[in-house]
Amino acid sequence: MDEGKVHPIASNSGEKLGAIAMPANVIRDADGSSRVILSEPTGCTAEVLLHGGQIVSWKNERREELLFLTNKALWKAGKVIKGGISICFPQCINFGSPEQPGFVRNRLWSVDDSPAPLPPANSRSTVDLLLKSTDDDLKNWPHRFELRLRISVTAGKLTVIPRVRNVDSKPFSFAVALCSYLSVSDISEVRVEGLETLDYFDNLLQRERYTEQADAITFDGEVERVYLSTPPKIAVIDHEKKRTYVLRKDGMPDAALWNPWDKKAKAMPDFGDEDYRISLCIDSSSIETPIVLKPCEEWKGRQELTAVSSSYCSGQLDPRKVLQGYQY
User: Fold this and answer.
1) What is the structure's pLDDT at 97?
2) Cα–Cα–Cα angle for 296, 303, 36, nearest 5°?
């Protein structure tokens, strides 16, 4: 593959008639790394690194960046970049904390040349990524697996579908999370709705189990929690930008929230001192109860992110519109 040249990825031969798939392009940079660019007719785009299968950009039709990516990222082999969307598998040691991401985020993925058929969808740009376990991986985790990611961009929506297949001769169990760093104006102006009254593990308090008492979650200090048995829809409301992120998920019952706040941010070499103010990490995850797969079985999850203009009433967002009323 020539450096800097754009190479179209072949369209999926299993795609159903009537679906209009937009082209995805894979680019090899001068340093030898590869990334995939997705785009659709309204102008929404996404950028995916083959290293780690990590989504490092998602822009809306106005070319506004919706994902956070630290400007202190260490672009080195074997380094996980703080930001974007990445997968944690097969273990999330700190209950989904991005500090313990699982080894697949340090592997080079490939574009899947024989993905499963796509369901009908107009004006979608999609890439299918594949990671197969190697003999070296068995030293980290003694099970053979295939891990697939389908990443799709449509107007106003970013969809990630992870799939895990057991290609071993014995069952195995695993945890999984999609860690999504959202770009926000000011974390002190952000609230999360949909997690009220739920139990959660607090990593800052010896992973003790608590019940959320607040009507909505706001931020005035470090947060590292895993909420359990969460609803399929969660809203992240940015009052200053008048923007609401709606996260829909399936197959991943838990949800983690992470923000390091000022002291820990300054202690991390790959995270800007003020980055905590403009980011929030929210995970779709399955952590409390491990997923078990027998040989030849496959698990599939799904996460959809949309960004919509917030609707206000007396200065406050109507959560019913966010959590129940939006249709896509």
Assistant:
1) 44
2) 85
